[in-house]
Amino acid sequence: MANGNNDSQKKLPTPYTTAIYPLPDSKKTAGRETPDRRQVDSARVTTEATQENNLSPETWEDLVQTLQANRRRLLRIPGVTAVDIGYKIEKGEFTDEIALRVHVERKLPDDSFKDHAHDLVPKEILSPGGNPVPLDVIEAEYKLVQLGLSPRPHVVLETPQERANRRRRIDPLVGGISIGSPQVPAGTLGALVWDRIDGSICILSNWHVLSGNLNAEVGTPCFQPGLFDQGRSSDVVAYLKRWSFDRQTDAAIAELSGSRRYCTGEIVSMFQTIKESTDPYLGMKVRKSGRSTGFTGGFIDGLFFSAAIEYDNGIVQVFEDQIHIAPLYPEPISEPGDSGSVWVTSAPNEGYLAVGLHFAGDLPHSSFGEYALANPMSIVEEQLKFSFRPLYLELRDEDVTSAPPPPTPAAMQIQVGTGAQPLSVVLGGLTGTGTQPDQVRPGGGG
User: Fold this and answer.
1) Using the 8-state DSSP alphabet, how is residue 119 labeled?
2) 319 and 307 in contact (C-beta within 8 Å)?
3) Is 58 helix (H, G, I), strand (E, B) or coil?
4) Residues sharing a CB contact under 8 Å with residue 286, sequence separation 6 or more, in sequence order
5) Best CA proximity match to 219, nearest among 191, 170, 181, 173
6) Which of 60, 53, 52 shows the shortest CA–CA distance to 23?
7) Which of 231, 251, 351, 399 makes the best surface tag, with the fewest CB within 10 Å?
8) How are strands ordered across the β-sheet holding 262-267?
9) Burial of 35 (C-beta count, 10 Å sphere; 0-12/13-18/19+)
10) How far apart are CA 188 and CA 358, in angstroms?
11) Is the pLDDT of residue 329 over 90?
12) DSSP H/E element including 282
């Protein structure tokens, strides 16, 4: 669980709310409308962004264009694992200086490249406008680390120190708990969302958690808990519905089967609900609730992250324009089984705004400690056509049936001795039985 001691929090660099993904113009060229609620303005800037923001939008755009023009060339340099734009690191501390960052397997002194100088990462490169852009070299290697069917020594079935055990069978379904599929033994149920096409309630997680198969088919069962956490064939709670696995996303949704109740908007250890999604900026504080590391906090230290990520089944996928997250406290924020978690930030008044979908992290023992990677949530939301807000459906007269008879007193008695363990009451959010309604004509979005 997250460390609540502010004294142990890392010294954070200045938040730059103008350093945002995506660039405003790119939203138009991509052909997707961006609602006003996603624009970063003075109302969206939270209390951590109180320092002077002296990074102009023009400077940020120049940095992004420089990265886009050079990232493939930089990624071809031997030993380079990734590139992004973020805070420069000096002596293990983040500075307020923004640089184009080159991530390498191992930092070596310059004189070790005297016989092959072409493999040395340059100190700076020129932007398309001819301006020098500094490069910062970071030691980090990234991989999507999945749970295997055979437990590793450090991922045995410990009991999390929380009121609700994320790795056990949970009713009602909420975000932050164990989920899996026939091919992937355990990941995280990120959140329960509304399908914008038919209004059904679905599970949001990663493609590699809900499927992991390039030949995936609609209807693949999803288990809660995952098979690694002693889930079994009777624990099917949803069926794979849509997925997106490309240069920007590793995401999927699965429609609930009706076998369990659910509580939309709720995530274990988070006492407010997700209201909608928002775009990330450098320095934004974020948090997530995952199956393995629990409730953890971080801040966005890099954007437009690009790297080739290797999956355990041999698939290698090149990702571009991802979110790079550093820990707020000296604690793990990305462990096997956390994939599918939703990174959120605090909304201006109350509740949370979804920022990214966790899918990978760095390998153990990187020089800084640990990083996490996430798909931008606005892209995931658009690709999979779902919403964190209710989709209101208009019922026709012929769809309305008579009300069922009230339950008898005997049916209302609490059954004792069934072996089920009580779950702490989750306040707020919408609840339901998990049974999906017949498809009806949408009457507008919520």
Assistant:
1) G
2) yes
3) helix
4) 280, 297, 298, 299, 300, 325, 343, 344, 345, 355, 356
5) 181
6) 60
7) 399
8) 173-175, 262-267, 430-432
9) exposed
10) 9
11) no
12) strand 281-282
Unique residue bearing structure tokens 């889930």: 231
Residue 180 carries which DSSP code?
Answer: B
* C-alpha angle 400-402-403 in degrees, rounded to nearest 5: 110
Distance from C-alpha of 341 to C-alpha of 364, rounded to nearest angstrom: 19
Strand partners, 297: 287
> Per the structure block, which two tokens stand in for 84?
């992004």
CB distance 96 to 111 below 8 Å: no
Tell me, rounded to whole angstroms, the distance of Cα 248 from its chain centroid. Answer: 12
Q: Rounded to an integer, what is the distance from CA 218 to the centroid of its chain?
A: 23
Q: How far apart are CA 405 and CA 362, in angstroms?
A: 56
Lookup: tokens for 323 = 């979110």
**Running DSSP on this structure, what letter comes out for residue 148?**
P
Beta-strand relationship, 281-282 and 16-20? antiparallel
Question: Which residues, at least 6 apart from 396, have a Cβ–Cβ distance to it below 8 Å?
Answer: 440, 441
Q: Cβ(340)–Cβ(358) under 8 Å?
A: yes
d(CA 36, CA 32): 13
What is the dihedral sign for C-alpha 310, 315, 316, 317? negative
Kindly state the percentage of the chain with pLDDT values over 90. 41
One-letter amino acid for residue 260 of the chain: R
Q: Hey, which residues does 255 pair with through a beta bridge?
A: 202, 239
Nearest 5°: phi and psi at 17? -75, -10
Name the one residue in this structure whose structure tokens are 């072996």.
Answer: 419
Q: Determine contact, residues 329/370, Cβ cutoff 8 Å.
A: no
Contact residues for 190 (Cβ-Cβ < 8 A; gap 6+) = 175, 176, 203, 204, 205, 340, 341, 342, 357, 358
Give tens-digit pLDDT for 177-208: 999 998 888 899 999 999 999 999 999 999 99
pLDDT digits (tens, 9 = 90+) for 351-400: 899 999 999 988 765 555 578 999 999 999 999 999 998 877 677 777 77
Contact indicator for 172, 429 with CB cutoff of 8 Å = no
